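Revision sheet: structure tokens.
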Amino acid sequence: MSDLSGVGRGFVRAAMNAPFLERDEEKQLAVRWRDSQDQAALHQLTSAHMRLVISIAARFRNYGLPMSDLIQEGHVGLLEAAARFEPDREVRFSTYATWWIRASMQDYILRNWSIVRGGTSSAQKALFFNLRRLRAKLTRGGEERMDEEVYAEIAEAIGVSRKDVMNMDVRLSGYDSSLNAPVAEGESGTAERQDFLVDDSPLQDETVSEVIDAERRARWLRGALGCLNERELSILQARRLTDDQATLESLGDRLGISKERVRQIESRALEKLKKALIAESPEMAATA
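Predicted:
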């Protein structure tokens, strides 16, 4: 009873003292609930199986959650079982309800055991609830074995990847840590974990906006460069559109003209490019 200290003694006593139902009586109550929505029949049927809820809740007591909450969730599963039970099938209600009660408790544990959410697939649930038992079984007797070997056997037994087993083992071995937990003391006071999590990178919307703007500017520039003749384009590319910019003198020697003439052609090309860009995108005139 010590494990049920958080549950009302009167409730537990009533559940344990509820009479067992014979198969025929159980079926009659289930039929009355299914066909007539008889609340009295539902109450009698579920009350007789609350000891089953308490028994299953006790199996999950090592997950650090209140027994009262587990029993409450189990009761939800019991009601779900009553709503879905087919009394015409030759199955005892307790057998059918056990699955729903356990599933309801397991879902509650997965939601509340840690602030870090894990997988909710059937394989992930099986891994969560069986990992410690299987690991203890495989390492029984003090035998020293590599973790990788144990992970591989557990992964094969449950039907998940070795990586899933390793990740779940880390989750079950660690503890949640508050971002407000103090980690250091300095002149300005005590620092918290969240103080060291600041990301100086641009926000996602800023990054996307910059990429879109850069693509738009590159498209405008490619279109505007079409207004230049071959020599203007060659000079502008060598002077403005490369990292290793050519000098006026070197371009003059290559083209067989003076460096002053190169400067004039470059200036004219820039003016033509400016006009073409403004014509294609009038909003650029404000920054021109």
